[in-house]
Amino acid sequence: MRRNVFIKTFGCQMNAVDSARMLSLLSQADYGAAASLEEADLVLLNTCCIREKADQKIYSELGVLRRWKQRRAGRLVGVGGCLAQQAGDALRRRAPHVDIVFGTHNISKLPEMVRRAAERVPSLELAMNGDVGHWDIPPYLPGGATSAMVTIMQGCDNFCAYCIVPLVRGREVSRSSGDILAEARALAERGVLEIVLLGQNVNSYGNKEGEIPFHDLLLRLSRVEGIRRIRFITSHPRDLDERTIGRFSEIEALCPHVHLPLQSGSDRILSSMGRGYTLREYFGKVAALRKARPGIAFSSDFIVGFPGETEDDFLRTLEAMEVVRYDSSFSFRFSPRPGTHAAEMCGQVAPEMSGERLGRLQALQDRHTRGRLSEFVGRETPVLVEGESAKVRGKLCGRTPCHKTVNFTEGSGEGPIRKVRVTSARAHSLAGEEIP
Ligand code: SAH
Ligand code: SF4
Ligand code: F3S
Prior knowledge:
Layout: E1 3-9, H1 13-28, E2 31-33, E3 42-47, H2 52-70, E4 76-80, H3 81-87, H4 89-94, E5 100-102, H5 110-118, E6 123-125, E7 147-151, E8 153-154, H6 165-169, E9 173-174, H7 177-189, E10 194-198, H8 214-222, E11 229-233, H9 242-250, E12 257-259, H10 267-273, H11 279-292, E13 297-304, H12 311-324, E14 328-333, H13 351-374, E15 380-388, E16 396-399, E17 405-409, E18 417-425, E19 430-434
Parallel strand pairs: 1-2, 1-3, 3-4, 4-5, 5-6, 7-10, 10-11, 12-13, 13-14, 17-19
Antiparallel strand pairs: 8-9, 15-16, 15-18, 16-17, 18-19
Helix pairs in contact: 8-9, 9-11, 12-13
Bound molecules: S-adenosyl-L-homocysteine, iron/sulfur cluster (SF4) and FE3-S4 cluster.
């Protein structure tokens, strides 16, 4: 009998692509994708625990699922991803209606776990033995997709003082370049024009395995027929090297946008975070990238209220933002995570203080975002169409090479890449019209 699964994804792109793998796997076990919770026989939460708020969201979601499960016999609930890895059995003690708990390295066991759960045997699979085991499961891709994510590595060895990722995703492991290239070719054959390479620290790709270096991987991918755009996340400012920076002038398909998380503009805080670079070194890389590809866009992540952060440290972050003028950024209040070094540090900043700093930082970012967007008004730009605009009816939505969202009126053009004249800038996107 055909059944339906509803997967709810929290957290980052790593989870998004893992959810797409879960869907592929379960479709082989006769599960279709449910359009809503009510249609579903099985609900999977793919969870995140990067900040405390992320945890809370998931526990409140589990409360909703307890009632959902009671409404019809035979319904199943599974929890995977980072919070599942971290909480393990404690999750089932807190939410006994959960049938399946599986960690970040156990996705391939999902069909077996679901089969057991249907026979009322709960599963707990949390082994992290270095073998990721699910890279060969092709993530489900909707028909007509123009962009796809390709995992190139998993885990992280950096242990930034605040970060739980190494604890829940394990040590860094890179995938073979042959497999990555094969996946890119298969995607291109399906009509995908853009690939987004995924890893917690893409610049150290392959170092441990003796694979080709990241800059060579970029070169080889750029030669895959049909691939017109390449992006990658995330770059670590310490490990982004000259050869990779040079690729921005050599490879046209490499998109002019780099996500380069600064975290803080204070060298004292950067050192206490264990980030491994100074502000000056960071600025050096930004300048080199701007030289290699004039007009390149930057985005960043920031943490405010890291233990020991003073007003002066915080002002340095704002100053650094004025220097780079990021196109966009994600910013968060420091959240102490169990098992991390920073959770135990003295000098924890009061939540009101970090909340106030976050507000100032985000106001500055909004100004910069608007400024950056307004630079595009009147310009012509190629746009990779992602589909109909969800926000503005009757318009198409897509991305510029530097990753700006554009909603535009369709002209007589055809195909996935259209030429668009930008007519106005909104707070977080551009509007325009297609030109012949
Ligand atoms: N590997 C990536 C992403 C890590 S998680 C990288 O190195 O940049 C994404 C972002 O979440 C981080 O860049 C950081 O800004 C934020 N983050 C991680 N742990 C956090 C914590 N304990 N409190 C607040 N923000 C955190
Ligand atoms: Fe976390 Fe640092 Fe690794 Fe990024 S580089 S995942 S912030 S430990
Ligand atoms: Fe969250 Fe795990 Fe990603 S903790 S941010 S889903 S790696």
